[in-house]
Amino acid sequence: MAELNETLIPVVGVITDVRIDTPDIKTFRVVTPEGKKPFDHRPGQCAMLSIPGVGEAMFSITSSPTNTEFMEFSIKKCGCVTQWLHAAEAGQMVTVRGPYGKPFPVDDVFAGHDLLFIAGGVGLAPLRSVINYCRHHRDRYGKIDIVYGSRSKEDLLDYQEIVNEWQNDENVHVHLTIDREQADWDGHVGFVPNYVKELGFDTNKVAVLCGPPIMIKFTLEGLCALGFDKTQIYTTLELRMKCGVGKCGRCNVGAKYVCKDGPVFRCDELDELPGEY
Amino acid sequence: MLKCNLSQLDNLFAAVAEAMPLYLPTQGKNGANYTKWQAGAVWSNTCNTQKGPKDLFFPQSEDLMAFKTQGKTIEIIDTRNEAEDFAVFGVRACDVKSLEILDRVFLSEPKDSYYASRREHGIIISLACNRPTENCFCGSFGIDASSPNGDVTCWLTEDALYLRGNTEKGEKFMALAAPFVTECDDTAAEAQKEKIQKIMARLPLADLKTDAFGGGKTEEFFNSPQWAKLSESCLGCGTCTFVCPTCQCYDIRDYKTNDGVVRYRCWDSCMYSEFTRMAHGNNRNSQKERFRQRFMHKLVYFPENNDGVFSCVGCGRCLAKCPISMNIVKVMKALEGEQNG
After folding, report:
1. Domains of chain A
2. Residues 6+ away with beta carbon under 8 Å from B10
């Protein structure tokens, strides 16, 4: 039996670093007990993390596949598993299995194109993987625009990396915004969908959206108003999952399983699905 | 074709049970169910068992793995054991087909090793239905109750059981049965088949059609006003999913033991409000949405992903068991009626 691979059986991972990103988001660095990256993945894919006795949950892998040393997960505190993780310290073991899901088409559809990444709140977590993948393979892509917004400056995920690395890259343009004015902020203030309209991008590019459903809805409308076609826009879905391989039935929407047919979907594909996501 | 006189049947069961666990329907307090044969057990020819043989391959609850935890450390223990050969006798055509449907879920890549091991070692001895019930509609799903699939197919007459081996696995069973059977021709089995087919044609649900359903029909049915009416009195008890031989949704949970944690899986139901509830909300908040999901999955989504095969075998269990008498037949008729105007 041992020779039969079983996807439900995880491997042990060790949290080697916990970074406090925002008041409710921490980023966990995970390696195997031997100090290696648990497994390879593609940008946008997910993994199941668990703490035996507490539960198992699906998270997007926020580190880039080009990082061969470790895996990172940016996790917002909102349920049982995430609360437990937020209380964990370096050295704590967890279990990890994956990778699951369909990645962003970075090597075919995205190749040779200008890219526009739009994220809201913790929605940057899955996009960080693909943004850093594209930055790593910079010559394969054209101009990169990143629009990222959060409630406040403190709620911006990966702020140091954005300011110290992304903004310094050639031909990468970062547009940050926060919902309300605050004293130590001289950047843009306003919601992401409006900011995207104000910035007014040309449509000769591929756009990737990730964030709260309400942000996705209005940003998608905004992009379409700018002349984008839904076939140029990608986003990710998130539903409850248990198995990760399209068998337990939980993340089924229409004939799709978000865990294996997603989480990445092209926006015109979503129109084919019943509106239960 | 082999023939076993009914007077020899208990001896045949005993011989098989000596070689491997043998499961067959026996009468219990609440009707017939598959139980492990032991001396004195009386096989029940009831059509149909309360639950199908799904438990034998995909148990209602099963341990998946164990963990030893100490301080910050975790050790994962693979507790899987290769299944041993076992035989299941008396499986009806609908239930045989239900296993083929579960195969499409659990044996597609990546294979579920727990299910795969049991499937590999389980020998299915099917039995044609002499007395199908008024709730039966397997014929609507292209299933022939007079000639079920399986590793061995059996036909029962007044005085004998006729057996035909279909597969290599089936031959294992036939070898164990050898001392209690004699060679014969197909005449009696064929006559029995014909009798059954005549009964099937006269069943009250014999005319139920599936033509209106299948892959690609999401738009057609998803927004039907029928769902609100059909689901109005649904209690969300999940009985339909638990007696359904093709329902396969499951949950994975942990329980703590004295020295660690065991991770197990158990049947779950899309009819339950908890099924899709997440920390940030629930994408199927009403019973109407959950009810619709179950039937859309069986009649549209599953066939879309599985070469047109429906995730229903017409066994009729949900017709018999639903406390508010709602069922897939009523759903199909209501949706189809609407389609026809």
Report:
1. 11-100 (2.40.30.10), 114-238+255-271 (3.40.50.80)
2. none
B259: phi then psi, degrees, rounded to nearest 5:
-120, 25
Spatial distance between the Cα atoms of A65 and B241, rounded to a whole number of angstroms: 41
Q: What is the chain A residue with the closest CA to B116? A: A4
DSSP reduced 3-state for B40: coil
| pLDDT > 90? residue B258 | no
Mean pLDDT, residues B156-183: 97
In this prediction, residues A243-249 reach a mean pLDDT of 96
Partners of residue B70 in chain A, C-beta under 8 Å: none
Residues whose CB falls within 8 Å of the CB of residue A249, separated by 6 or more in sequence, listed in order: B248, B249, B250, B268, B270, B297
- DSSP states along chain A: -TTS--TTS-EEEEEEEEEEEETTEEEEEEE-TTSS-S----TT-EEEEEETTTEEEEEE--S-TT--S-EEEEEE--SHHHHHHHT--TT-EEEEEEEESB---TTTTSTTSEEEEEEEGGGHHHHHHHHHHHHHTGGGS--EEEEEEESSGGG-TTHHHHHHTGGGSTTEEEEEEESS--TT--SEES-HHHHHHHH---SSEEEEEES-HHHHHHHHHHHHHTT--GGGEEEE-----SSSSS-S-TTEETTEEHHHH-BEEEHHHHHTS-S--
User: Which three-class secondary structure state does DSSP give residue B164?
Assistant: strand
> What distance in Å separates the CA atoms of residue B19 and residue B4, rounded to the nearest whole number?
19
Nearest-CB residue to A247 (from B65, B80, B105): B105
CB-CB contact of A158 with A164 (8 Å): no
Q: Which of residues 131-170 of B touch A (CB under 8 A)?
A: none
Q: Which residue of B has its CA nearest to A243?
A: B252
Q: Of A49, A83, A93, which to mutate for an interface test with B (greatest number of B Cβ within 10 Å)?
A: A93
A217: left (phi over 0), alpha (psi -120 to 50) or beta: alpha
Helix (H) or strand (E) holding B268: none
Q: Decide if A255 and B256 are in contact by the 8 Å CB cutoff.
A: no
> Residues of B146-183 as b/e, b for ≥16 C-beta within 10 angstroms?
bbbbbbbbbbbeeebbbbbbbeebbebbbebbeebbee
Cα–Cα distance between B231 and B241 in angstroms, integer?
A: 15
- Tens of pLDDT, residues B68-124: 999 999 999 999 998 899 999 999 999 999 999 999 999 999 999 999 999 999 999
Give chain B positions within 8 Å (CB) of A240: 275-278
Average pLDDT, chain A: 95
The string of pLDDT tens digits covering residues B187-214 is 999 999 999 999 999 999 999 999 999 9
* In the predicted structure, residue A277 carries a pLDDT above the cut 90: no
Fill in the DSSP letter of residue B264. Answer: E
Residue A3 has pLDDT above 70, yes or no: no
pLDDT at B239 over 80: yes
The nearest CA of chain A is from the CA of B224 a distance in Å of 12
Asked if the interface predicted TM-score (ipTM) of this complex is over 0.85, the answer is yes
Does A248 contact B251 at a Cβ distance shorter than 8 Å? yes
Is A2 in contact with B116 (Cβ distance < 8 A)? Answer: no
Residues of B in contact with A95 (CB under 8 A): 67, 74, 76
